[in-house]
Design goal:
The structure is a single chain. By secondary structure, the protein is an alpha+beta fold. It folds into two domains: about 10-75, no CATH class; about 85-160 and about 180-190 and about 200-215, no CATH class. The chain has helices at about 35-50, 55-75, 115-125, 130-160, 170-175, 180-185, 210-225, and strands at about 10-20, 20-30, 85-95, 95-105, 205-210. Helix 3 crosses helix 4. Keywords: Nucleus, Transcription, Transcription regulation. This is Bushy growth protein.
Amino acid sequence: KFRMPTEDNLVPIRLDIETEGQRYKDAFTWNPSDPDSEVVVFAKRTVRDLKLPPQFITQIAQSIQTQLTEFRSYEGQDMYTAEKIVPIKLDLRVNHTLIKDHFLWDLNNYESDPEEFARTFCNDMGIEDPEVGPAVAFAIREQLYEIAIQSVASAREIKISKKGRRGAEHAISSKGGGNALDLMKLFRYNSSVVRKRKEWYVYEPIVDILSNEEVDALEAREDRNTR
């Protein structure tokens, strides 16, 4: 049944809200088992702590609730069960730290902990910024969430084809079946997790510390892309 393929079944929540000339961006995880009343409490506390206009309370609460509702809509549904070694990619900037990495993740390991992975990663790479670890863990959880959703779509496609409503090829190639096809190909791809020497560079983590000028240039480019 659907759940996050990690020890803690947490929902990645991303907020990007702008009103009255102020913008609030944040990313964090939420326990879907917590009562919905906690959402409003969190929104009020956030607005108070960050001294945001009161209008942000409703928008923050609504955005969190919408994302929680989407997550809960998948609960109880079947997931595609097979050997699942999937690639995870990191390409993010946190303050002055730029991170790029590429590694494999076992979706059948329900004891995995993205936060612990991120702490180990930061220690190994000598990263001192305390905001980097949570950002790395969140990036992993976001990708695992998308893969879990695709797993539900794959299970649905397989169930339909088995019932004979349509052939497997038609089901996969039909509208909306692209993600299921990609995921099934990925899960059925037999490959060793031990990489050949000539491929090592692909999986080597890259961490760069940017200057103030480089950060300003990146932020200006991100603002243009957002607009």
